């Protein structure tokens, strides 16, 4: 399970660059191959951007390794997210974020937590 130092909070669009840097640094330090790190950064960017666009109060992210995979939790005050969605049509203006996350991660889980929702993504090393 993650240590308290394995996470960071974010609350405004200007924090997203720091979130991506944090996730990248943690992933490399935990042994994720450099070629997989951009996939993680994209997934986290989509989830944290959704937090800022669709919820209030920002969120918190944690990153740790479990065996041969990297685990990342994104927790915010939003409602449960519907996964298992089709990719929106090419002409759609919005709605691809969660569909992209599902397709690029090895596993995606979501559950309600006190005050919001936790989305857990996993990427194999």
Strand content: 25-35%
Whole-number total of structural domains: 1
- Averaging pLDDT over every residue, what do you get? 92
CATH fold-level assignment:
Heat Shock Protein 90
Q: Give the name of the CATH architecture.
A: 2-Layer Sandwich
Kindly, what is the distance between the CA atoms of the first and last residues, rounded to a whole number of angstroms? 17 Å
| Shape designation | globular
Total number of helices: 3
- The SS-based structural class is alpha+beta
Query: What is the helix content?
Result: 25-40%
CATH evolutionary superfamily? Histidine kinase-like ATPase, C-terminal domain
Radius of gyration: 14 Å
Oligomer: single chain
Spatial order of the strands forming the largest sheet:
1-2-3-5-4
Give start-end ranges of low-pLDDT stretches: none
Largest sheet: 5 strands, antiparallel
Overall CATH class: Alpha Beta
Order of helices and strands: EHHEEHEE
The count of DSSP E runs of length 2 or more, i.e. the number of strands, is 5
Describe this structure in words.
By secondary structure, the chain is of the alpha+beta class. It has a single domain, classed as 2-Layer Sandwich (Heat Shock Protein 90). It is 32% helix and 29% strand. It has helices at residues 16-29, 37-54, 97-104; strands spanning 7-10, 59-66, 69-76, 107-113, 116-124. Helix 1 runs antiparallel to helix 2 (37-54) and helix 2 (37-54) runs antiparallel to helix 3 (97-104). It is globular. The two termini are 17 Å apart. The model has no long low-confidence stretch (mean pLDDT 92). This is ATP-binding protein. Keywords: ATP-binding, Kinase, Nucleotide-binding, Serine/threonine-protein kinase, Transferase. One of its GO terms (molecular function) is ATP binding. It holds the Pfam family HATPase_c_2.
């Amino acid at each position: 399970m993650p240590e308290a130092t394995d996470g960071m909070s974010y609350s405004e669009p200007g924090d997203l660059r720091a979130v991506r840097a944090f996730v990248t640094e943690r992933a490399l330090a935990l042994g994720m191959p450099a070629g997989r790190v951009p996939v993680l950064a994209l997934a986290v960017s989509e989830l944290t951007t959704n937090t800022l666009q669709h919820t209030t109060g920002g969120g918190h992210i944690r990153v740790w390794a479990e065996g041969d995979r990297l685990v990342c939790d994104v927790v915010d005050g939003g409602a449960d997210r519907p996964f298992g969605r089709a990719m929106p049509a090419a002409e759609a203006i919005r709605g691809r974020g969660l569909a992209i996350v599902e397709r690029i991660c090895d596993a995606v889980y979501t559950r309600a937590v006190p005050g919001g929702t936790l989305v857990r993504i996993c990427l194999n090393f």
